[in-house]
Amino acid sequence: MSAGTTPFRGTIGKTVADSKPWWPQQPKPRPGAPNILVVLFDDVGFSDFGCYGSPIKTPTIDRLAAEGLRYSGFHTTAMCSTTRAALLTGRNHHSVGVGCLANFDSGYPGYRGKIAKQAGTLAEMLRAHAYRNYMIGKWHVTPLTESGATGPFDGWPLGRGFDRFYGFLDAETDQYAPELVSDNTHIDPPGSYADGYHLTSDLVDQSIRFIADHIADRPDLPWLTWLAFGACHAPHQAPADIIKGYDDLFAHGWDVEREQRLARQKAMGLVPPDTKMPPRNDGVKAWDGHTPDEQRVFTRLQSAFAGMLDHADRHLARLIGFLEKAGVRDNTLILVLSDNGASQEGGPLGFVNAMGPYNFRPEPMAEKLRRIDDIGGPDSHTNFPHGWAMASNTPLRRYKQNTHGGGIRDPFVMSWPGKISAKGEMRHQFVHASDLVPTLLEVIGVSAPENIAGLPQMPIEGTSFARSIADASVPSKDSPQYFEMFGHRGLWHQGWKAVSYHPPGTPFDNDKWELFHLDRDFSEVDDLAEKEPHRLAEMVKTWWSEAEKHNVLPLDDRFGPRFAENAARFQGARNTFTFHAGMGHVPTDVAPDVRSRNYTIEAHVEIDGVDAEGVLIAHGDATSGYSLYIKDGHLVHDLNIGGGHQIATSDRKVPRGAHRLGVRVERLVRKEEPAKGARTGLSEYTLLIDGAPAGSLQTQLAFHNLISWSGLDIGRDRGSPVSRYDAPFEFTGRLLRVSVVMDNDQKLDGDGVGNAEMARQ
């Protein structure tokens, strides 16, 4: 503007210089607001970290504990989706709609499988205070039927306050060929087992990348990084040399291991010196009662679990080292914890590949022994037996899914060098997963918002334990805390706990309630129900009151039927899928559900050369699935059940030109329905070339309860190969489209489906 001119005036009579900017103002961080790193392990038991009594090598976690605090009274919700919902929102899991799993929606307010919009996440709350939020790893708090290419994305991490996401949406994934998502897009893994890829390493790489990018771009702003490992959820997969290095350590078996862990815990001051060892969990035999072959297999299965945790700790060391080199470690609050107790899904004998038994292909001990060196590798879906899960939860009873201590009491380490002066101390207060958010908000110095994106918010239900960080004498919260999972129930209040184990399918009124004084009975072994019936009755009454308040009711132990109902509700009457060339990856829960039914797959192709080959459609991975492909000129269909291959090959080669290549699958007619849990008779797999039969195979094996936890691709098999070829084995002809047409004759065994699905959680 030249001298002597008049400044421009708007319609309200103010000059530009007088006006405030019209654009939205960015929030400013609170002075001294810490960075927050949450490291969430999966299915790691109370005693599995070295600093909680284990011989497993976890020096990184142990160092964080030595520089900070260990909590002995941290409690979760007994399952992965539910604990994550409580940790993310600061509310009880039923209250926010994730009373059970993200795998199904029961319709009741407490069981929608998705965090309610009225329950903002920590990331959504911190956005208003200038935090940048990064989610890496396992999510599993949105329905898996919403995990496809069209979402909806409002329940994915970027829809719930995170700025970036790199990880997986499901409960589990193969560590060498994971079902990866970047932000809102399914992507191929950046490597494979053959070139040394492992998901744990990748997740740490991405964590470093997000934080490094943040420091480069906005070093003045604080960040939240939520790193949720796949470790140590099945499949237990880790480098073979790490796994085998634990064989000698665990050869003494789970009975000796439990005693050694408890002795270490007492010496550490983690548990009271008079803590008693509970009897073995129901169905667990003495180690010496197993044969030498069984002991050898069980030891290797435990070594795979240990190797996976060891491997994760090694890579966590890289992340902590980066924070130190970047100069941000002192003002980074680091939390290391587990989402529930060690898992019982491995059953009494464990699995080398759990996918076979869930489709009625048994895995006898002789086969486990023959495949012992496959344990933890790319064609395994390994899980350890009950006895080792029991040892993981030392000195607590039962497992994940249960509301006794083994399911809900977990390790929790806190480190913040710039603020926590008490180095290596214990904290014995009762703390619940829902208490984390209010604690972090108090530490930062902010309050939970009353509205997020225009929606009024539910009250925070957890209680801050921030004062206990500096003062070990601060008492536990006074309010009661309920527990419920699959009908198992519990209530903690003022150092006492009432708990009931619910046998599935039995009346809830028949459940036996136990009563424990946890302040004097850490391991829940001295049942005081008969000595203090009035106290127990009052606590049970309080449980019902809390259950009504937090949307726990109605109680529902039908997890098998719920899975089957959800699948039927999602796909409904849809019986045709068309996949065109150029499409991306399809997650398993939105792929064609060909379990227990007749169906036809047909690929439209154009073949110019006699050497055209490759995958037309593949669903699954090396542990389970199906693939239709051309190899050596022939059309081939592979039914992979638990790593066992039922292969049909065409009786003639596929000629040049345009063709329809397919397979027709029919369950042969049965005179009567099979008994529950039995095989469902023969199925016939007929190859088709232009609609004409070209060879067939009959087998008792079929997809009765599951196909795979890995998804579907056309024109290639992108990761762990379903059949006997090298992935991705891309089709070298021209693939136009693939159709899957399913008959309306599906009959699912809810219990069988439920058992298979529970192995996935």
Radius of gyration: 27 Å
Number of strands: 29
Largest sheet: 10 strands, mixed
Strand order of the largest sheet: 7-6-5-4-8-1-9-10-2-11
**DSSP strand (E) fraction?**
15-25%
Please mark out the parts with pLDDT under 50 across 5 or more consecutive residues, or reply none. 1-13, 674-679
Principal-axis shape: globular
Helix content: 10-25%
Mean pLDDT: 93
Query: Cα distance, first to last residue?
Result: 67 Å
What class, by secondary structure content?
alpha+beta
The number of helical elements comes to: 16
Question: Can you describe what's shown?
Answer:
With 761 residues, the chain is an alpha+beta fold. 23% of the residues lie in helices and 21% in strands. It has 16 helices and 29 strands. The strands form 6 sheets. A 10-stranded mixed sheet has the order 7-6-5-4-8-1-9-10-2-11. Strands 19-29-20-25-26-27 form a 6-stranded antiparallel sheet, with no helix packed on it. A 5-stranded antiparallel sheet has the order 24-23-22-21-28, with no helix packed on it. Strand 21 (614-621) and strand 22 form a beta hairpin. The relative contact order is 0.13.
Helices and strands, with pairings:
Layout: E1 35-41, H1 59-66, E2 69-71, E3 74-75, H2 80-89, H3 122-127, E4 132-138, E5 164-168, E6 180-182, E7 185-187, H4 199-217, E8 223-228, H5 240-244, H6 247-250, H7 254-268, H8 292-325, E9 332-338, H9 365-370, H10 386-392, H11 405-408, E10 412-415, E11 425-427, E12 431-432, H12 436-444, E13 451-452, E14 455-456, H13 466-470, E15 481-485, E16 488-493, E17 496-500, E18 513-517, H14 533-549, H15 559-571, E19 576-580, E20 599-607, E21 614-621, E22 624-631, E23 634-641, E24 644-653, E25 657-667, E26 683-689, E27 692-699, E28 712-714, E29 734-742, H16 750-760
Parallel strand pairs: 1-8, 1-9, 2-11, 3-12, 4-5, 4-8
Antiparallel strand pairs: 2-10, 5-6, 6-7, 9-10, 13-14, 15-16, 16-17, 17-18, 19-29, 20-25, 20-29, 21-22, 21-28, 22-23, 23-24, 25-26, 26-27
Helix pairs in contact: 4-8, 7-10, 15-16
